[in-house]
Specification:
With about 90 residues, this protein is an all-alpha fold. It has helices spanning about 5, 10-45, 50-65, 65-70, 75-90. About 85% of the residues lie in helices and about 0% in strands. The longest helix is centred in the N-terminal third of the chain and has 35 residues, at about 10-45.
Length: about 90
């Protein structure tokens, strides 16, 4: 965006645009970050014997039941964290 184009954007328009972009970025990243975060937690707590087995199960669920996976609280936490971090940064 050129300097002239940025001058024509009001503060509320800028916040709205940043919020939309943050939502898309958070949503896109959550599909990759959530399984990795969950795999580390499951390995450390002893629920799964290895990180690879947890990742395999997570990605299987993502591919076969994406809506169910997106409704998990963990997905929402990662989505919220990344989206709000993006908004705060910009």
């Amino acid at each position: 965006m050129t300097k002239d184009a940025r001058d024509n954007v009001t503060l509320s328009q800028g916040i709205f645009i940043d919020s939309i972009v943050a939502g898309f970025a958070g949503f896109a990243l959550s599909w990759f970050i959530t399984p990795m975060d969950g795999a580390v937690m499951e390995k450390m707590s002893g629920i799964k014997p290895s990180i690879q087995s947890s990742l395999k199960d997570s990605f299987k669920t993502i591919l076969t039941k994406p809506i169910k996976y997106a409704k998990l609280p963990q997905f929402g936490y990662v989505f919220g964290t990344y989206s709000l971090s993006y908004v705060a940064k910009n």
